[in-house]
Amino acid sequence: REAKRSMAPTCCSSCFQGLTKGKKDLFRQRSGTWEPSASALSHQLSAEWASPVPRYGAGAADLDLVMSSLDTDVPHQPGRNKDARAGRRSKFEIEQLTMSPGSLPKPLAPYEREQAIRRLQPTATYEMLNQVPQEVLEEATAEAQELRRKLTKGATVVFISAGYPGKRFIFERAAALGVKSVIVDHPDSWSRALVDEGIVAKFLEVDMGQSSEEVFKQALAAISELGKDGLTGTADGIVTFVELSVPMTCRLAEVLGLPGMEPQAVDRARDKHRTRAALKDFGLPTPANYLIKQGSDLKAAAEVVGFPAVIKPVSGAASLGVKKVTSFEELESGYLEVAEELGSLVVSSGALTKASNGTKGVNAKSVVDLTVLLEQYLDGPEVDVDIIMSEGDWRYAAVSDNGPTLEPYFNETWGLCPSMLSKQQQTELKDLSVNCCKALGFTSGVFHVECKYTSTTGPQLIEVNARMGGGPVRECNRLVWGVDLVEEAIFVALGIPARPYLPKVPYTCIGYTFVNAQKSGKLMSTAGFEAWRKLPNVLSADPLVKVGDTVVGCKDGLATWLCQLVVKGESSEKALKLIQKLESETEADIQ
């Protein structure tokens, strides 16, 4: 296919006028009859912020990109984002949380990937891309961005898992682009209502209570039927914004011959021990670490890593089991804490539940990997770097500040965009993050990378998440730099070159905080949080819990997030002062 692409006619950027104003018709074949509703199209975003992108090539400005982000894709906790199955985990989720990639099929060998591509008919998007000179698509201009959006209109894009209801904006943006969205999720997902609203074209039911292998087979079968009813076309692209669905999404893309990340790279990123090995092989800095497979490994691990250290599950378990330990005694108790918590669960009817006298099911120890990693504790400020890669190289890398986490469980607090670190530190963090993605084998995609700038060894990686960050990440990018990560992720999923364009200075400065419960008990009121919405420079104040919910205080464990507050300021420093002032003046009513 790349050989065919290279045969496309060449021209200068003056072609934009004809391409974008209809003088050259870009017609999508086999697109289907479904169209977004008028209300869905009303979410179309203004070109006033969407058009600025950085220029590449001669004369390009060397910008240090900065951006703020926190990720809220975490296991269900009291008071955090809940869905219809809150408090229960499916077998699919268990595998992806604790032993990813679980029973998903092995990645295809290179020759198998080539065979899969050759067997399949080129997508409608690919046929349209062949009508446009490659150099035109790769321009980082306002006109080129509009052309990329035009190429996206009418495409059938499959979304694996909808996530929690707070991710609705993803599907609204897709509808505004004219995308025919197809969601694959559990029958009781909140997102199936989006079909009736005219935001999503189709909802494909898949029982997520099954093993990863069975979920994969059912999803593949359902996706393969797209286009037969004339409502949508066949799948042009496949994407996910949900952490646990990343390993399955890349495997589906591989089998279907669609653009996507290589499964081997995703598996390396989700296995913390393999991540560290890949970085070491690439010549990148990595903290001392030791793989603990059983209790008898604790002593050797302590001797290699030393203290303070961090114990964390080796697989992608989000904040589950992540804890700082400062002595061998704390290491022993911390390891037992993880083992006992997981060991007290059972898999019943495909869900993870607490064991009781009347509970029937399989003990979680038989399906959950209790392997953990002991890693050198990293001091210094924590940052996030949001990255867009396309065609083998990075096209956007934005650094943000994270406030000090609440130890020992590393609960997130606040974030700032743009970063207040020095230009040199930001550049080093950006370079490390990009190189970490490359070391893991990634060539395209949207990534949320977490790092620290340590006092002794400089920038160090915490982890690479192979998808857009959660929480306010998308809004911070959009408001500060005019870059829509949802839009860019869809471009990459369709095989459209991503070339976001940034202004030389940020449009605004954003600060946000996740208000942590300071004590345990029952939340009696959210009025104080809701009152913030009326104040100047407050962009949003969204309670994450309901009145009557039981919450956990920071002294008793992983604290419950009570509210997400987002503000703007003339500078990052002023934004930070505002969120700290509001939080200090408002005490949550917990009894």
Question: What can you tell me about this protein's structure?
Answer:
With 591 residues, the protein is α+β, with helices and mostly antiparallel strands. Helix 14 packs across helix 15. The longest helix has 18 residues, at 423-440.
What is shown here, in short?
The protein is α+β, with helices and mostly antiparallel strands and 591 residues long. The protein is 33% helix and 20% strand.
* Largest sheet composition: 8 strands, antiparallel
Cα radius of gyration in angstroms: 24 Å
So what's the overall shape?
globular
Helix content: 25-40%
- Note the beta-strand portion: 15-25%
SSE blueprint and pairings:
Elements: H1 2-6, H2 15-20, H3 38-41, H4 47-50, E1 89-90, H5 91-98, H6 110-119, H7 124-129, H8 134-137, H9 142-152, E2 156-160, H10 168-176, E3 180-185, H11 193-196, E4 202-205, H12 212-224, E5 237-239, H13 246-256, H14 263-270, H15 272-281, E6 289-292, H16 298-305, E7 309-313, E8 323-325, H17 328-343, E9 345-348, E10 351-354, E11 362-363, E12 372-376, E13 382-390, E14 393-402, E15 414-417, H18 423-440, E16 445-454, E17 458-465, H19 473-481, H20 485-494, E18 509-516, E19 521-525, H21 527-531, E20 538-543, E21 550-551, E22 561-569, H22 572-585, E23 589-590
Parallel strand pairs: 2-3, 2-5, 3-4
Antiparallel strand pairs: 1-10, 6-12, 7-8, 7-12, 9-10, 9-11, 13-14, 13-16, 14-15, 15-18, 16-17, 18-22, 19-21, 19-23, 20-22
Helix pairs in contact: 14-15
